[in-house]
């Protein structure tokens, strides 16, 4: 049943505002992952969140702003954690594996991240450009800095850093993006615990063998 909304109460109750905003974002995430920006309907999102549609517009202004708020919710959380890992001291090879592990674990715990990310990459407009500048560019610079350090210290082989980033991203994300198709072809659930464990190990092994230098590193 759709809840009524007291605008005065919302302005004076921070915890209630945050709770309501989170409910709208969660409902919007489900809708946008399944139907995209164009296909999702604001009345359906509001009903799923248990609020009236006026409240949705009160918090986010428009369906497009809500869509990018959902994306930013994911990107902000991942970037904060990723930048911390990429800046950690220690052997660059070990930091790289921790970063790849973080990326894998982050997406595996958020089943709708992969379809949302796919739709984001095929979208256009100024809002997407703003998110790229805000989140992707700093992470890309930090990732490249780590690769350069690893090359200088003789841990990582020299590569094209842009394509290395793309390749690692594809290793992680495509598995989850293709999960529905893989299941249709007779494979088991991509998100099953045993399958996640095996896939993560395969990804890390691929990174070791593709980028690490030194006789012992590829077998760690």
Under CATH at level 1, the class of the largest domain stands as: Mainly Alpha
Q: Alpha-carbon distance between the termini?
A: 55 Å
In helices, the fraction of residues equals: over 70%
Question: What is the tally of helical segments?
Answer: 11
Gyration radius (Cα, Å) is: 20 Å
Shape: globular
Descriptive report:
Helices cover 76% and strands 0% of the residues. The chain has 220 residues and is an all-alpha fold. The model is unreliable at 216-220 (pLDDT under 50). It has 2 domains: 7-61, Homeodomain-like (Arc Repressor Mutant, subunit A); 65-215, Tetracycline Repressor, domain 2 (Orthogonal Bundle). The chain is built from 11 helices and no strands.
Keywords summarizing the entry:
mainly alpha; disordered C terminus; single chain; 2 domains; 220 residues; Tetracycline Repressor, domain 2; Arc Repressor Mutant, subunit A
Give the gist of this structure.
By secondary structure, the chain is mainly α. It is built from 11 helices and no strands.
What's the layout of helices and strands?
Elements: H1 7-12, H2 14-39, H3 42-49, H4 53-60, H5 63-86, H6 92-108, H7 113-122, H8 126-152, H9 161-177, H10 179-184, H11 193-211
């Amino acid at each position: 049943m759709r809840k009524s909304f007291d605008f005065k109460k919302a302005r004076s109750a921070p915890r209630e505002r945050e709770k309501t905003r989170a409910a709208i974002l969660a409902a919007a995430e489900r809708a946008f992952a399944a139907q995209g920006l164009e296909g999702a309907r604001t009345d359906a999102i509001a009903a799923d969140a248990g609020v009236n549609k006026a409240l949705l517009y009160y918090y986010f202004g428009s369906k497009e702003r809500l869509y990018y708020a959902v994306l930013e919710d994911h990107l902000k959380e991942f970037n904060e954690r990723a930048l911390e890992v990429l800046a950690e001291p220690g052997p660059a090879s070990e930091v790289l594996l921790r970063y790849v592990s973080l990326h894998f674990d982050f997406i595996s715990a958020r089943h709708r991240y992969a379809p949302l990310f796919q739709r984001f990459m095929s979208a256009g407009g100024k809002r997407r450009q703003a998110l790229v500048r805000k989140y992707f560019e700093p992470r890309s610079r930090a990732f490249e800095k780590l690769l350069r350090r690893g090359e200088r210290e003789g841990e990582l082989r020299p590569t094209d850093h842009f394509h290395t980033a793309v390749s690692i991203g594809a290793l992680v994300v495509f598995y989850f993006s293709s999960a529905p198709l893989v299941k249709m072809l007779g494979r088991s659930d991509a998100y099953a615990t045993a399958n996640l464990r095996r896939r993560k190990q395969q990804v890390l092994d691929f990174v070791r063998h593709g980028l690490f230098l030194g006789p012992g590193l590829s077998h760690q």
